[in-house]
Design a protein that fits this description.
By secondary structure, this protein is of the alpha+beta class. It has three domains: 9-94, Rossmann fold, CATH 3.40.50; 123-183, ATP-grasp fold, A domain (Dna Ligase, domain 1), CATH 3.30.1490; 187-356, ATP-grasp fold, B domain (D-amino Acid Aminotransferase, Chain A, domain 1). It has ten helices and 17 strands. It has helices at residues 17-28, 59-68, 81-89, 98-104, 107-116, 133-139, 164-173, 229-245, 280-283, 288-297, and strands at residues 9-13, 32-37, 50-53, 71-74, 124-127, 144-148, 158-161, 179-183, 189-197, 203-205, 210-214, 217-223, 250-258, 264-270, 308-316, 331-335, 346-356. Strands 9, 10, 11, 12, 13, 14, 15, 16 and 17 form a nine-stranded antiparallel beta sheet that branches. A four-stranded parallel beta sheet has the order 3-2-1-4, with helices on both faces. Helix 2 (59-68) packs across helix 3. The chain starts with 8 loop residues before the first strand and ends with a strand. 44% of the residues are buried. The structure holds adenosine-5'-triphosphate and magnesium ion. Adenosine-5'-triphosphate is lined by residues 122, 145, 147, 152-156, 182, 184-185, 190, 213, 216-218, 255, 267-268.
Length: 359
């Protein structure tokens, strides 16, 4: 493809914090960034050159938005596939395309696809109704996590089953929707790989961060992961393989459970920039947001070499009302401009540089 010229217009579907950080990175490269979001006053809209506030199925607004953009990308994996198709029908390319979204929007399709690529996941069984739970539990060793197939994030739409009583209530706890039951994994840690792929197939990965979750929500990502290089390399190779299999353009994240013996089980992927990559702008040569914009613009990808040891700490709920006085000299604060702190809501993050890279 012909690279976009500086001054061209890039549209983002979705108005959350990921869109906000993408819009800032795009503006730095000289692009005009436009946001399309059903939410009024969105975090991304407040830093962009223009915003469209309309529903995902508003064909007229989408056509207008497409017309205003040279290329469109997304910050939210649950943008309806029909929305992507509408923008493309108006003649504007969407990167990544709908293939990456279609697969990642349904946990059953997603895990099946990963396994087909030789990227092993935890064992899982489809659960289409409460009556399927007993048999699925028996197959998976008596314990597991029931997860809705669609629209789960930050641990929402999930219910643990460790007892007969929990099995009884699990279907109601996830809101009674088509689901999968996944075997409970006793992992030593969790890591993720952020990978970027350009339209020419050039693919780069960053060092995998070790991710600590609290109540199903990412709390801290740290680099280096402390794992042997061979495990990190295997995870990076798997993420590259996935990006290629999807013909993905842009950034993508693949999450893993690391077992005691070092075996990797893929958990899920997100076809977009990712919370566990928020340390990359401050601690590596090229950050994930700039890289994503480079990829969708058809520009050469930047080097992903890690320069610092670092820790990214999510500010969730009230913690987002951070006092600037608490910031250390090597901390970078990013706030998402959300007007109201609610429990479990991601308000911002701090990247703490812990010194030059040692390995
Ligand atoms: P996010 O959007 O934050 O990535 P999500 O709602 O899509 O989360 P998952 O990534 O599937 O959900 O699960 C969130 C976390 O719950 C995982 O990172 C892990 O810590 C824990 N978890 C999920 N599935 C399992 C499992 N099968 N065994 C053990 N722990 C699990
Ligand atoms: Mg996850």
């Amino acid at each position: 493809m012909t690279p976009l010229r500086p001054g061209a217009t890039i549209g983002i579907l979705g108005g959350g914090q990921l869109g906000r950080m993408l819009a800032c990175a795009g503006a730095q490269l000289g692009f005009d960034m436009l946001i399309y979001s059903p939410e009024e006053n969105s975090p991304a809209g407040r830093v962009a050159a223009g915003t469209w506030c309309a529903a995902w199925d508003n064909g007229e607004a989408l056509a207008e938005f497409a017309e205003a953009c040279d290329v469109v990308t997304l910050e939210f994996e649950n943008v309806p596939v029909l929305t992507i198709d509408t923008v493309e029908a108006a003649g504007t390319p969407v990167r990544p395309g709908s293939a990456s979204l279609k697969i990642s929007q349904d946990r059953y399709t997603e895990k099946t696809f990963l396994n087909e690529q030789g990227i092993t996941t935890a064992p899982f069984e489809p659960v289409d109704g409460p009556g399927d739970i007993t048999a699925a539990l028996a197959t998976l060793g008596g314990k597991g996590v029931l997860k809705t197939r669609r629209e789960g994030y930050d641990g929402k739409g999930q219910a643990w089953i460790r007892s007969a009583e929990e099995a009884e209530t699990a279907w109601d706890r996830i809101g009674g929707a088509p689901a999968i039951l996944e075997a409970a994994i006793a992992f030593q840690c969790e890591i993720s790989v952020i990978v970027a792929r350009g339209p020419d197939g050039d693919t780069r990965t960053w060092a995998p961060p070790r991710n600590l979750h609290k109540d199903g929500i990412l709390a801290v990502s740290s680099v280096p992961s402390g794992l042997p290089k061979a495990i990190e390399d295997e995870a990076r190779a798997k993420a590259m393989k996935l990006a290629e299999a999807l013909d993905h353009v842009g950034v993508l994240a693949l999450e893993f459970f690391v077992l005691q013996d070092g075996m990797l089980l893929a958990n899920e992927f997100a076809p977009r920039v990712h919370n566990s990559g928020h340390w990359t702008p401050e601690a590596s040569q090229t950050g994930q947001f700039e890289q994503h914009i480079r990829a969708v613009a058809g520009w050469p990808l930047g080097d992903t070499h890690r320069l610092h040891d670092a820790e990214m700490i999510n500010l969730i709920g009230e913690a987002g009302l951070v006092s600037p006085a608490s910031l250390g000299p090597h901390d970078t604060l990013t706030l998402y401009g959300k007007r109201e702190a609610r429990p479990g809501r991601k308000m911002g993050h701090i990247t703490r540089r812990l010194g030059p890279r040692k390995d």
